[in-house]
Amino acid sequence: MIEIVDLTKRYGKFTALDSLNLTIEKGSVFGFVGQNGAGKSTTFSILATLLSPTSGTAYINGYNISKEPKAVRRQLGYMPDFFGVYDQLKAVEYLDFYGASYGISQSERSKLIPQLLELVNLTHKQDSYVDVLSRGMKQRLCLARSLIHDPEVLILDEPASGLDPRARVEMREILKELKNMGKTILISSHILPELAEMCDSIGIIDQGRLVAQGSVAEIQQRLQGEKLIIVKLFHELDRAVAFFEDQPLVSQLAKRDDEESLQFMFKGSVQEQVQLLKNALLHEIPIISFSEIETNLEDVFMEITKGVELS
């Protein structure tokens, strides 16, 4: 459905995108993770035929973005990270304008627009002027606009950017519904844990390069099995520190702010983790609790992109 081949974009001596290769299967949701300036928006603008690549190409549902831009635009709905709205239009008029721009007949628009407003939970705001809508409502209206011509592919650049927690939940639920409808979705976000909930796979881009790609579980394996362990103690903190410092699979040992707990990274199997706890108890370390904290995607991102440099 989306195939990217050696896609490169240069501005003079600066390389914004460096030989990107990526394939996204039909009906899947792919999450693009990266810091500001990493190359996400450049990639999306090229796929949406708004920006020409320096070299390489991409295909949307088999259509070449450079040679068949009109056909590509019919296949996809694009939601940029920053978008304009027409303040003097009501929400329903806004969608009607874009529907007419795509050549959709008045009779079809009259049926389609109520369905889109219901999908993005804006039916109750259909007669409200766009400029009085909250940011979250404007985001959902823009998403409805990108769906007006029923595209098979959605490219969503930071759709949850700047939203409050409630609005992010609403946006996430809408995207889940679109996934259930069989849409192929390429989405970028800084809200990494939420991205993981929605995506079949993710890619981490840094300095224009795709530095990691796979399922969330596969990406997490890049940490080579390290786990964050929290140990809560009943006094004798210094003796516990001395014990864990001597353990070969323990690293980054530190006291926590509550002064009754330790944390460390553990590189070992589940069986070795059990043995570590047994040994601690045999040495009469007064442990109240011994727990593993699941590594989140922010930790994964920081670990994978650490030390990445352009050659």
TrEMBL record:
It comes from the Bacteria. This is Linearmycin resistance ATP-binding protein LnrL. Belongs to the ABC transporter superfamily. Its EC number is 3.6.3.-. The gene is lnrL_1. GO terms for molecular function: ATP binding; hydrolase activity. InterPro entries: AAA+_ATPase, ABC_transporter-like_ATP-bd, DrrA1/2-like_C, P-loop_NTPase. SMART domains: AAA (SM00382). The keyword ATP-binding applies. It is an enzyme of class 3 (hydrolase). Residues 2-232 form the ABC transporter domain. Keywords: ATP-binding, Hydrolase, Nucleotide-binding, Transport.
